[in-house]
């Protein structure tokens, strides 16, 4: 088992026996690493200490871990002080938020999920781990595995979208990638699935808001990606800021201890989110700081990030007997065991090798991977009249605030990206054009991200008139998504919409390149453009990856991991919603579940995406009419590439449970596979569906299957395909 920290390292017990209470609580504290170059502001200021004070605390044995500093040379110095100058010589863990790339930046996790290729995410996470550990890190606060069913929430950008099966596959893949096969290897990066749990379910999509959720939705939708990440060997979990039905996640004994420790037997450490223990007071869940400490620790939070609450209050709580010494020892044992598991007691200077840090020989390979990951993440929503791919000799106007921009390439969670290597759209397009042909590319900003430019629209319109096709680069500035970036309207900034309307009025065909950290509600000329490509935030190689797709060197193979609604007001909108008693009918009759303005559908559903050849699906076929409760069924469809070029197709298996003891979702993804299809090729794509995959949290509160009728679809999206019925005996 990769996550097995047993048999316990004997050095852990020897140390524990020698530690004072102060040294024990010291191991349970993590602080901002002000000793090394520190990541720019990603968190509010709290409990700030300068470099000298941090090192002094390390020397006193009062620091278990430091975070968000970087660099192997100074990292060695921190570790030297810990190992040689503190009384017990316990090494510190060096952590950071390395979410989708270190120096080389890969697509935001939501974008990468659109590839529907967990193996790709495993490779980018591995490359990230190689770069992060070379920069003096042992531990990352990733992957974010929150399921995001409300696109107003800005942190959906950090996860894998709205679906649990897709999210679980990406969660596990990222953990495997970060940690690699051997936790002790110098390039293994400890992974931390976060934020435990249901952070993506915050009310109204507002970050840090409350969560009201049923047990069934919690267990069937939000918990499985954590389980998948832990089964893949993750040895740390981060608690969430939100409360769950009134109990803050960071003081939630039922979840942190009952579920995580007792039921799931999680052997690793639980770390708070940034000052989440402190925030129990603001939640009104704790009387004061001491009470907050008691509640967080008592619930099962081993390590406290930044507040300093454990150091300040745990000793007195142990002294008074409110926190048993055995409980303190158990938490310290877990932190020390993780340090042992990653080899810090054998080599405290692990991942702190300046020679490795200055070696750049891997960068070319990582750049190639970043380009491939980026183009595999792009989703082609629409391609009227085959406007794409573009001819290389076409007169192209590249218009929009993202055309030359390099400040909105990395996305919301890149702290240490090498900006000198970012490729803007213009640079990528020019590099793809033959020498001499670059004059046929005219580039105009038109407006800035949120404001008009004098004469901008006029210049864009003039360029559009001269061009055969306009590539319109629009979207959200990158600070619109990520932490604390919730939106009420998930639309483009008005000035960009105005630019699109003006350019569209020229009649020149429009290819829209969307940059976005969430699903957007597309309007007017953007919605009606001849072609629309969703490009998320693609990272370092943005320009090259987009050019690969625009000119047809790569046929787009991404599929939506989030539903694109008609309108913001539909949120939360997700494809696998429970059935209503008054479903909408095609004739849109009265008294049905719909809005006055829009039907209860997506503009582009989950799973949707096109390539450069039409692909057809035959009806779904199942191998037997009945499946036993412990049985397996095969489901397949004939999938045909009717075009003249090879494409990659994401074939998806969905199921619907017709009657349940709780109202069941209209459809649920059960499996998916990306396949390469040659021109003219037809093939049966088969899935094995285990009866166990039909289980859910039933009305009796237990997780299990229920007999009855089901439908299965082998389909290209969550709303397509012709189903086959079967019965679970
Ligand atoms: C934050 C985030 C969390 C991050 C942590 C450390 O506030 O919620 O995702 O890992 O701080 O920077």
Give a description of the structure.
The chain is of the alpha/beta class and 729 residues long. It has three domains: 309 residues, TIM Barrel; 200 residues, Rossmann fold (3-Layer(aba) Sandwich), CATH 3.40.50.1700; 116 residues, Immunoglobulins (Immunoglobulin-like, Sandwich), CATH 2.60.40.10. The protein is built from 21 helices and 28 strands. The chain has a six-stranded mixed sheet with strand order 10-15-14-13-11-12, sandwiched between helices. The protein has a five-stranded parallel sheet with strand order 4-3-2-1-9. Strands 20-28-27-22-23 form a five-stranded mixed sheet. Strand 11, helix 17 and strand 12 form a beta-alpha-beta unit. Helix 18 runs parallel beside helix 19. The longest helix is centred in the first third of the chain and has 17 residues. It is globular. The two termini are 34 Å apart. The N terminus is likely disordered. Alpha-D-glucopyranose (GLC) binds next to loops.
What's a concise summary of this model?
This protein has 729 residues and is α/β, with parallel strands linked by helices. The chain has three domains: 10-98 and 137-356, TIM Barrel (Alpha-Beta Barrel); 371-570, Rossmann fold (3-Layer(aba) Sandwich); 613-728, Immunoglobulin-like. Helix 6 runs antiparallel to helix 16 (363-377) and helix 18 (456-466) packs parallel to helix 19 (494-504).
């Amino acid at each position: 088992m990769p996550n097995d920290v047993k048999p316990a390292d004997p050095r852990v017990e020897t140390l524990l026996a020698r530690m004072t209470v102060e040294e024990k609580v010291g191991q349970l504290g993590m602080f901002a690493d002000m000793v090394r170059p520190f990541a720019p502001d990603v968190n509010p200021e709290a409990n700030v200490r300068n470099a000298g004070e941090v090192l002094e605390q390390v020397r006193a044995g009062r620091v278990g871990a430091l975070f968000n500093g970087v660099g192997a040379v100074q990292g060695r110095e921190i570790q030297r002080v810990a190992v040689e100058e503190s009384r017990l010589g316990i090494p510190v863990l060096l952590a950071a938020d390395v979410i989708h790339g270190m120096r080389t930046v890969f697509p935001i996790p939501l974008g990468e999920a659109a590839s529907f290729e967990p193996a790709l995410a495993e490779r980018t996470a591995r490359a990230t781990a190689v770069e992060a550990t070379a920069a003096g890190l042992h531990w990352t606060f990733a992957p974010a595995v929150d399921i995001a069913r409300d696109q107003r929430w800005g942190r959906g950008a950090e996860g894998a979208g709205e679906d649990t099966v897709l999210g679980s596959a990406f969660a596990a893949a990222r953990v495997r990638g970060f940690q690699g096969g051997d936790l002790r290897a110098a390039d293994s990066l400890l992974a931390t699935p976060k934020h435990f749990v249901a952070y993506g379910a915050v009310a109204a999509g507002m970050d840090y808001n409350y969560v009201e959720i049923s047990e069934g939705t919690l267990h069937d939708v939000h918990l499985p990606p954590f389980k998948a990440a832990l089964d893949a060997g993750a040895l740390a979990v981060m608690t969430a800021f939100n409360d769950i039905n009134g109990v803050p996640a960071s003081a939630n004994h039922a979840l942190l201890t009952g579920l995580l420790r007792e039921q799931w037997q999680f052997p690793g450490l639980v770390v708070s989110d940034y000052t989440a223990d402190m925030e129990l007071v603001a939640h009104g869940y704790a009387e004061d700081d001491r009470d907050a400490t008691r509640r967080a620790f008592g619930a099962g939070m081993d390590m406290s990030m930044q507040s300093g609450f454990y150091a300040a209050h745990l000793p007195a709580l142990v002294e008074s007997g409110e926190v048993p010494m055995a409980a303190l020892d158990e938490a310290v044992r877990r932190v020390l065991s993780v340090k042992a598991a990653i080899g810090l007691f054998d080599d405290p200077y692990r991942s702190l090798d300046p020679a490795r840090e200055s070696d750049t020989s891997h960068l070319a390979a990582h750049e190639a991977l970043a380009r491939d990951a980026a183009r595999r993440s792009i989703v082609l929503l629409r391609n009227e009249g085959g406007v794409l791919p573009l001819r290389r000799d076409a007169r192209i106007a590249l218009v929009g605030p993202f055309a030359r921009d390099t400040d909105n390439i990395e996305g919301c969670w890149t702290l240490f990206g090498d900006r000198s290597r970012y490729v803007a759209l213009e640079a990528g397009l020019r590099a793809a054009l033959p020498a001499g042909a670059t004059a046929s590319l005219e580039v105009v900003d038109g407006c800035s991200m949120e404001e008009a430019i004098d004469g901008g629209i006029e210049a864009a319109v003039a360029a559009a008139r001269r061009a055969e096709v306009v590539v319109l680069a629009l979207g959200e500035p990158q600070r619109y998504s990520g932490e604390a970036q919730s939106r009420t309207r998930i639309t483009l900034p008005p000035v960009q919409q105005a630019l699109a309307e003006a350019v569209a009025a020229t009649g020149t065909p429009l290819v829209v390149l969307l940059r976005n950290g969430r699903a957007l509600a597309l309007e007017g000329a953007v919605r009606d453009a001849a072609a629309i490509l969703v490009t998320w935030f693609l990272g370092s190689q943005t320009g090259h990856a987009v050019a690969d797709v625009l000119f047809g060197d790569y046929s787009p193979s991404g599929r939506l991991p989030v539903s694109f609604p008609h309108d913001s007001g539909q949120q939360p909108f997700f494809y696998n919603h429970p059935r209503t008693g008054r479903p909408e009918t095609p004739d849109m009759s009265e008294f049905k579940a719909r809005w006055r303005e829009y039907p209860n559908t997506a503009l582009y559903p989950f799973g949707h995406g096109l390539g450069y050849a039409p692909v057809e699906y035959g009806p779904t076929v199942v191998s037997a009419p009945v499946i036993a409760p412990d049985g397996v069924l095969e489901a397949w469809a004939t999938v045909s590439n009717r075009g003249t070029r090879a494409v990659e197709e994401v074939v998806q298996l969905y199921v619907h449970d017709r009657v349940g003891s709780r109202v069941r979702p209209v459809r649920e993804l059960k499996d998916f596979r990306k396949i390469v299809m040659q021109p003219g090729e037809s093939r049966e794509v088969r899935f094995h569906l285990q009866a166990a995959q039909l289980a859910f949290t039933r009305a009796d509160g237990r997780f299990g299957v229920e007999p009855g009728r089901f439908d299965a679809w082998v389909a290209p999206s969550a709303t397509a395909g012709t189903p086959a019925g079967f019965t679970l005996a």
